[in-house]
Amino acid sequence: MKQRILTGVIAAALFLPIVYFGGLPFVILTYLLASIGLYELFKMKKLTIFSPYGFLSLLFLWVLLFPPQYEKFFNEFYYSKTELGIACILLLLAYTVITKNRFTFEEAAFSLLSAIYVGIGFYFFMEVREAGLVYILYSLFLIWATDSGAYFVGKAMGKKKLWPEISPNKTVEGSIGGIVCAVLVAVIFSLLTEINATTFSLIGITIVLSMFGQIGDLVQSAYKRHFGVKDSGNILPGHGGILDRFDSLLFVLPLLHFFHLW
């Protein structure tokens, strides 16, 4: 527990100032986090990111992440994000032929889906931050409240297993407790900030986001169970990997953007 707390404090001290100031440092941080996330998925699958297919997958991820405010960079070369992304996909598929199927179609599909899974979530990390610091803080508080509520309510009164095949410790009672806790925190957050939503609509949005945050957690648990690993990585001692910390955000942030709160 001491290691977990120490890692959390150090990570917050490094992470929060960059989130607060935003801009290019935040974009660089997001690229770094997403790249580590893709590396973690490759490692679970026992693929190496330091390979031609790994480079193509990273390139596809980086193109997918490219924020709109910097897209004029592509105009200098007369290409769009979509065109470059398609080129990466075609090259990755061509690599299966070049290697005479030693790099299989299934591995190519895994590489692409992994880049999309990580890339979409972290792309909207930048989009939500661009909309305003208040929305990033809302997302972080929502996930923290959901996780804490689910843990303590589940521990106190959890009986019915939520999805034992994927995550045996999670309960239905804990899941509901997490949603209730998230709603309470969201209401308090709306009273203390200038988030652009009525209390009624924010409650509805919070319920949906809290549910999908838990689904994001379960998706990562399913990945780990499928590949037989405890954590996605070990870059954060006591916490695991980047995906262990951002699994809920990868689902919450795109949905938050789609709700058009700003």
TrEMBL record:
Enzyme Commission number, as recorded: 2.7.7.41
Keyword field: Cell membrane, Lipid biosynthesis, Lipid metabolism, Membrane, Nucleotidyltransferase, Phospholipid biosynthesis, Phospholipid metabolism, Transferase, Transmembrane, Transmembrane helix
Superkingdom of source: Bacteria
Family matches, as Pfam families: CTP_transf_1 (PF01148)
Single Gene Ontology MF annotation: phosphatidate cytidylyltransferase activity
UniProt keyword annotation of Transport present: no
Transmembrane segments: 6-34, 46-65, 77-97, 109-126, 132-153, 174-193, 199-219
Catalysed transformations (reactions): a 1,2-diacyl-sn-glycero-3-phosphate + CTP + H(+) = a CDP-1,2-diacyl-sn-glycerol + diphosphate
Single GO cellular component term: plasma membrane
Signal peptide: none
GO BP terms, alphabetized: CDP-diacylglycerol biosynthetic process
Places the protein is found: Cell membrane
Family the UniProt entry places it in: Belongs to the CDS family.
Protein name stated in the entry: Phosphatidate cytidylyltransferase
